[in-house]
Amino acid sequence: MKKITSEKIRKVISSLCAQANFSLRRDLLAALKAARAKEPNKRNKRMIGAIIENAAVAKKDKLAICQDTGLPIVFLEVGQGVQITGDLNAAVNKGVEEGYRKAYLRNSVIRDPLLRGSPGYQPAVMHIDMVRGSRLKITLLPKGFGCENKSALKMFRPTAGVDEIKEFIIETVKNAGPDACPPYIVGVGIGGSADYASLLAKKALLRRIKISPKGLERELLHKINKLHIGTMGLGGRVTALGVHIETHPTHIAGLPVAVNISCHALRSATAVL
């Protein structure tokens, strides 16, 4: 049995807060560079270049890539051979607060969603999966709400065809328009229950972006880019950098489909203990 202390987890999460907000993921950076190369419009090409330059400055000067440093979402994959000593919930939330304070990141969390009140740094949203092995994998996803607000869920009839689902996904991106800072990464969850489909859609954003996707993901990416919303709403060929679909078995009487959109500043960082 591998023992991991809550104090160790706190320190790692604190570090991940800065890493995620300061350094753009390498796969996303590669996708942006590929998009710039294929964008024929000079104005749009310059705009993608500005996004890439912004990421370089943020990493060099240890500044937030975006002023909205997001709602901290923490994914934990806990191996069955791992024993966590101490209070895990407290470690996660203390780590988030410490990391955000030290890195001078914006406090955006309100404890009462109805009464609102003054913002703070925590609590984070936490998802835990038990897996085989003796490792603890921690992923921090700071999710900005300009794009989170464009999420959508639809409970389809079990008789719905693939074309109906594709239309819903494309329409969700169309409704987002330029408001969520494209080019987008589109996460899709299909199956499970309403809540699980939404979680799958968010988990899909953690996957590496493929420059040459296949199958339904490729088809949807092509059709979304045909919307010509373009980088920051300026039109052009690049509305989305990737479409990622995750599925799960569901009930015979239902077909949940969720869409979770990320802006071009898709930030996440991972550590394995």
Morphology call: globular
* pLDDT < 50 runs, ≥5 residues: none
Number of helices: 8
Helicity level? 25-40%
Number of strands: 10
How would a textbook summarize the main sheet?
4 strands, mixed
Average pLDDT, rounded to a whole number, is 96
Total domain units? 2
- What fraction of residues sit in β-strands? 25-35%
Radius of gyration: 19 Å
N-to-C span: 13 Å
Describe the structure.
With 273 residues, the protein is α/β, with parallel strands linked by helices. The protein folds into 2 domains: 2-23 and 65-143, no CATH class; 146-266, no CATH class. Helix content is 39%, strand content 25%. It has helices at residues 6-22, 26-38, 42-61, 88-102, 145-148, 162-176, 194-204, 215-225, and strands at residues 2-5, 71-79, 82-85, 125-131, 136-143, 152-156, 184-192, 240-250, 255-262, 269-272. The protein has a 4-stranded mixed sheet. Strands 6-9-7-8 form a 4-stranded mixed sheet. It is globular, with a radius of gyration of 19 Å. The two termini are 13 Å apart.
Topology of this structure?
Elements: E1 2-5, H1 6-22, H2 26-38, H3 42-61, E2 71-79, E3 82-85, H4 88-102, E4 125-131, E5 136-143, H5 145-148, E6 152-156, H6 162-176, E7 184-192, H7 194-204, H8 215-225, E8 240-250, E9 255-262, E10 269-272
Parallel strand pairs: 1-3, 2-4, 7-8
Antiparallel strand pairs: 2-5, 5-10, 6-9, 7-9
Key descriptive features of the protein:
273 residues, alpha/beta, four-stranded mixed beta sheet, 25% strand
Provide a quick synopsis of the model.
The protein has 273 residues and is an alpha/beta fold. Helices cover 39% and strands 25% of the residues. The protein has two domains: 2-23 and 65-143, no CATH class; 146-266, no CATH class.
